[in-house]
Design goal:
single chain, about 240 residues, Arc Repressor Mutant, subunit A, Trna Endonuclease, Chain: A, domain 1, 5-stranded mixed β-sheet, 10 strands, about 20% strand, globular
């Protein structure tokens, strides 16, 4: 049962469209860190000026969002996670997609999740807002396999695969074959976090008309100028989204 103080805090918060959008992203992507939230939803606000930080703090104090502290690669992180109270606000607006609140954050691959948020943020900055997260994709029980994200560009579905760790050769070969014959996607973009893995993937038998690769760090730094490539072609991301 909530205390009177907790109820009073909620009564003080009049939710904005931006607040709901933050809730929606947290529901879809599971976790974000404060810097990602500031950059995506308060892009014109100086972080230390207080505007974005104060609003996020207020949403936490009111119980819409909670903080989960963890250590990833020797770094202490404060992860922001949607609560049941925040999810209920999405349900009121029919924006919850039937998803449930995430209770066990410790069971998810945090680094992978955060990097996916960064990838989505790049596409968003380039005007590409039609994105389905892996969590939404997995809610479709009829699908037998799941990309990390799907972004629709000019009416065309592009599968996003974030390669944050090295996988067995057989797994990549199987995935390439799925994309080769899957009519849902015109393109599968593998975002690779290790240059050595990217070079190794180039030598596998990937369908050249369906699969391409981009270096994660290059995508973060260059955005529209990042180069998508395979053994037979190169193209900038900007030429695809513009």
């Amino acid at each position: 049962m909530e205390t009177g103080q907790g109820l009073n805090e909620k009564l003080k918060v009049v939710l904005t469209d931006r607040d709901i959008e933050v809730f929606r992203f947290l529901n879809e992507q599971i976790v974000m860190v404060s810097g990602q939230i500031y950059k995506m939803f308060w892009p014109d606000s100086e972080t230390r000026s207080g505007t974005a930080r104060q609003r996020l703090t207020k949403l936490v104090e009111a119980g819409f969002i909670r903080i989960h502290e963890t250590v990833v690669n020797h770094k202490h992180l404060k992860l922001f996670v949607l609560t049941q109270v925040g999810l209920d606000e999405l349900k009121k607006r029919k924006l919850d997609y039937g998803l449930s609140v995430v209770e066990r954050v410790g069971s998810i691959p945090v680094e992978h999740c955060l990097k996916l948020v960064n990838v989505r943020s790049v596409f968003r900055s380039l005007g590409q807002h039609d994105w389905r997260s892996e969590r939404l994709i997995r809610s479709d029980a009829s699908r037998g396999w799941y990309p990390d994200g799907i972004v629709k560009i000019k009416g065309i579905n592009v599968a996003i695969e974030l390669e944050n760790t090295f996988k067995a050769r057989e797994r990549y070969v199987q995935r390439f074959k799925k994309y080769q014959f899957d009519r849902e996607f015109r393109l599968a973009l593998f975002v690779v976090c290790w240059k050595s893995v990217k070079s190794w993937l180039f030598d596998l038998d990937a369908p050249q008309n369906k699969v391409c690769f981009v270096d994660y760090n290059e995508l973060m730094m260059k955005k529209a100028q990042a180069v998508l490539e395979n053994k037979t072609s190169k193209v900038s991301l900007g030429s695809i989204v513009s």
